Amino acid sequence: MGISISDITTKLIGDKKRWKQYKARTAALPTSHRTAIDGIERYLMYTGPNDGEQLMRMLDDLADLFEQSAADGTSVRAVVGDDPIAFAEEFKANYGIGSWLSKEQQRLVDAIEKADADGEPS
Fold this sequence. Notes:
Number of strands: 0
CATH topology: c-terminal domain of poly(a) binding protein
Number of helices: 7
Largest sheet: none
CATH superfamily: c-terminal domain of poly(a) binding protein
Helix content: over 70%
Order of helices and strands: HHHHHHH
Low-confidence stretches: none
Shape: elongated
Distance between the termini: 58 Å
Strand content: under 5%
Radius of gyration: 18 Å
């Protein structure tokens, strides 16, 4: 018995109805905010959680943030700051959920710490 496309989609993005609602919300944003949220969404899809429910919770909150900033007349740069990657990483960190990338980053840090603890060869 194989996995259906619907099962894969649900695993990646959770409930399809919720995904469509999210996409409708982001499509209604002003162009600058929509462009920014599309970029952050793509980054989170690649580097964020691999659980559809967790990802959708993050994206819904991201949509809330950008809807509110657009309503308040806040610029994208004022929301995101000077470093979009730092913004996205801090945004993800607020959820206390790991991703494959953060796990690999931690493995690298651990390997370097172990190498440092073992000392330089004489």
